[in-house]
Predict the structure.
Amino acid sequence: MFKNMDANDFSTFDDISNQAGRQKIIAKSAIMLEKLEIAQRIAKTDSSVLILGESGVGKELIAEQIHLGSQRKDMPFIKVNCATLAGDLAESTLFGHVKGAFTGANDETKGRFEAADKGTLFLDEIADLPDSIQAKLLRVIQEKTFEKIGSDTSVRVDVRIIASTNKDIEKLIEEGVFRKDLYYRLNVLPIYIPPLRHRSEDINSLAAFFLKKHSQDVKKHFEGFSDEAMEALVLYSWPGNIRELENCIERACVTGNSAIINRQDLLIENNSLLNAQIGEGGRDLKTMVNAFKARYIGSVLRDKKGNKTETAKALDIQRTYLSKLIKELNIEGEGDT
Ligand SMILES: Nc1ncnc2c1ncn2[C@@H]1O[C@H](COP(=O)(O)OP(=O)(O)OP(=O)(O)O)[C@@H](O)[C@H]1O
Ligand SMILES: [Mg+2]
């Protein structure tokens, strides 16, 4: 059984992530620990950051960490969802307007840029930023000044930009939907957060953490997960990444009615990587076991950046045996060290 007792035992950004009300970042895999280290280094600078990665991998959480690790941490962290910005409202939301600037502009307002002065502006879903705003945003980033709608007076701001997207922004540039010059300005410090299926070593800790969190919410006590439940969590492909994992554990806490979370408490039947690999037929034990081995070894191998010696050590097998398995099971990894 996997007990939830190590839910506090994580190497994290503890110094800045334990502030009241903040979600703690859980990371065990080498790749995520490396990303957190990069984030910590990035935090010390004032350059623009572009956080990339699939939906639910923790881009917003990382953006907050970068702010909290920076000298701006006591100043505002302002979030703007670029996907919800449209038309006049978009410009006004970002830059504000003066009284009478347009019908309905009854008072002067501050935009998000001004609100974030001396702090950090988090431009979430940047790929969805309306075309009409891209040029103005570029200018603010370059010159640090802008005019409110309806005003000729320049407003000067000192804002650190962190942008994020789950889209293929380079493809959008090719398609002419996103400005290349703006991309270059934003992409000074890129950081890619890998999907959960490529860092299976985080699943155990994340699951334990969410179990503790949500069991408190529902006022129940769970000791941990059954072996079968944990195996299912590790094998599932998590297309919705950590958000989906948290939802899954929350649901299990609500419906679970024994001391441990069992396999049937987890509603993750259909989308397991194993199912996808095995397809409709061939569900004999050997095929299942090999599919599991391939998936798990592949995940550790990627986490260790293709280093076979490190991977063999983590798996507690001989390096020569690992090489044999990689060949036999046709496992994809990075490099060949
Ligand atoms: N390493 C982590 N440890 C703990 N919680 C995490 C971690 N990563 C993500 N989460 C949680 O998972 C959820 C999704 O994270 P977040 O909103 O940061 O993802 P995102 O990449 O911004 O997703 P989207 O692209 O959909 O906006 C949040 O509730 C967040 O607190
Ligand atoms: Mg987000």
